[in-house]
């Protein structure tokens, strides 16, 4: 990837790491900074019953890993559990109070038939001395990890009051290079913990800028498979796709409107690079910005307003503008490089890339106070994307000279990486909640 971003602003449109490598593999999670004050919680290994066939996944370990990845919980290590109750009757709340453990999760996996399971769990509030949540689910080999993430979501929401986002998806781009062969670029979709990766597209030419539809059923992206930039929409269930923008020049940075009826994108029709909006029903394009500068990387503030990156002030900065016309309003003034924004799910803040020389970090702008918080400390952090509950931000980073995915809590207190066993991964985007 060309690092001279300040001198060649146009590469914002083509920010894919072209010299990276990746393999089709599960992303491994590595906690790089724990959050102080995370609530202690005990996840008791789930009891097994029924047929002697083993389940293909350790449900209690998945739940524990999910809660730890949120940064809000500190699950007790299995070897340090002070007891292992398997039912409410076996629960001694007093010893857990003495140990200052807030909550205990118990459960069981009943193997009712080969590849068929019943998963039951209970969330116990230690200081109330009572069960506060309990569910039973049916599962099979294919969805048992998803059911485990669903349990994590329920526990997270019960305790924090915020909807959990473990049972959602992420999309990202990898590229595999082998000597004597053309590169294989892959657009992949996986669980938020990196498991169950599925390849949506493989191409010998660059693929970039994936963007989820609001209902999570489609992904828009840019492909160079025909040796020029074209924008496609991929239907994930049917695996069908359609080409929606293929004019001469730049077709870049597609992003869905909140109601799913439009795509904002960057086109270079004529002599300038401007932000356009494509109505997906009529297939008509509407030019939004009309400026001699480079206007790119749109994101939707709401169904009628966009935030985009522009060099009209001489340096890349963020601007806000109605799709119905009017004057663009500058949002960022601090620093010489502010670009690649995404709006938080609640619409109250923007996450974006803030640069200084050759160093690029992820920053958060409060739209009301105008206060900016720098969240990361990497040398080349980019492509930020909010979790659908707004609690975490997924982004691309560099680690030991290769690309990884990383995540940081919105307060900057908790950080993690998602690393392929070999090679690099880039351009992450977090899917919305399932509908």
What is the strand content?
Answer: 35-45%
Task: List the uncertain runs.
Answer: 1-24
| Head-to-tail CA distance between termini | 37 Å
**Mean pLDDT, rounded to whole units?**
90
Principal-axes shape call:
globular
Number of helices: 3
CATH architecture assignment name of the largest domain:
6 Propeller
The domain tally reads: 2
Q: What is the C-level CATH assignment of the largest domain?
A: Mainly Beta
| Rg measurement, Å | 23 Å
CATH homology group of the largest domain = TolB, C-terminal domain
Please give the share of residues in helix: under 10%
Compute the number of strand runs.
Answer: 31
Q: Can you offer a commentary on this structure?
A:
The protein is mainly β. It has two domains: 273 residues, TolB, C-terminal domain (Neuraminidase, 6 Propeller); 124 residues, TolB, N-terminal domain (Rossmann fold). The chain has three helices and 31 strands. The strands form seven sheets. Strands 2, 3, 4, 5, 6 and 7 form a six-stranded mixed beta sheet that branches. The chain has a five-stranded antiparallel beta sheet with strand order 1-30-29-28-27, with no helix packed on it. A four-stranded antiparallel beta sheet has the order 10-9-8-31, with no helix packed on it. Strand 16 and strand 17 form a beta hairpin. Helix 1 packs across helix 3. The protein is globular. The N terminus is likely disordered.
């Amino acid at each position: 990837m060309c690092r001279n971003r300040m001198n060649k602003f146009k590469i914002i449109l083509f920010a894919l790491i072209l010299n990276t490598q990746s393999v089709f593999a599960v992303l491994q999670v590595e906690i790089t900074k724990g959050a102080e004050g995370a609530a202690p919680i005990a996840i008791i290994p789930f009891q097994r019953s029924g047929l002697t066939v083993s389940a293909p996944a350790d449900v209690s370990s998945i739940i524990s890993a999910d809660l730890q990845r949120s940064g809000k919980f500190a699950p007790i290590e299995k070897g340090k559990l002070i007891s292992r109750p398997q039912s409410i009757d076996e629960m001694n709340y007093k010893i857990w109070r003495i140990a200052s453990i807030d909550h205990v999760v118990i459960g069981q996996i009943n193997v009712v038939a080969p590849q068929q399971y019943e998963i039951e769990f209970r969330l116990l509030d230690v200081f109330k001395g009572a069960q506060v949540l309990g569910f039973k689910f049916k599962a099979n080999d294919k969805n048992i990890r998803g059911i485990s993430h669903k349990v994590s979501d329920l526990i997270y929401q019960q305790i924090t009051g915020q909807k959990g986002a473990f049972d959602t998806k992420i999309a990202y781009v990898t590229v595999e290079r082998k000597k004597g062969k053309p590169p294989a670029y892959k657009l992949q979709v996986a669980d938020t913990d990196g498991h169950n990766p599925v390849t949506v597209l493989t191409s010998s030419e660059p693929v970039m800028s994936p963007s989820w539809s609001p209902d999570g059923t489609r992904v828009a992206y840019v492909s160079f498979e025909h040796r020029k930039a074209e924008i496609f929409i991929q239907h994930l269930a049917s695996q069908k796709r359609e080409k929606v923008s293929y004019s001469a020049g730049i077709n870049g940075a597609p992003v869905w409107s909140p109601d799913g009826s439009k795509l904002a994108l960057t086109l270079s029709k004529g002599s300038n690079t401007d932000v356009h909006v494509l109505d997906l029903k009529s297939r008509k394009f509407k030019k939004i910005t009309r400026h001699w500068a480079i206007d790119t990387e749109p994101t939707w503030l709401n169904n009628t307003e966009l935030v985009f990156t522009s060099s009209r002030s001489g340096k890349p900065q963020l601007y806000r503008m109605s799709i119905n016309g009017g004057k663009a309003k500058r949002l960022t003034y601090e620093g010489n490089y502010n670009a690649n924004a995404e709006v938080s799910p609640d619409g109250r803040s923007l996450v974006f890339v803030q640069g200084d020389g050759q160093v690029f970090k992820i920053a958060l702008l409060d739209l009301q106070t105008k206060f900016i918080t720098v969240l990361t400390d990497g040398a080349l952090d980019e492509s930020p994307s909010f979790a659908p509950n707004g609690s975490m931000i997924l982004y691309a980073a560099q680690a030991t000279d290769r690309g990884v995915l990383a995540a940081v809590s919105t307060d900057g207190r908790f950080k993690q990486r998602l690393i392929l066993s070999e090679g690099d991964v880039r351009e992450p985007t977090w899917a919305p909640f399932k509908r």
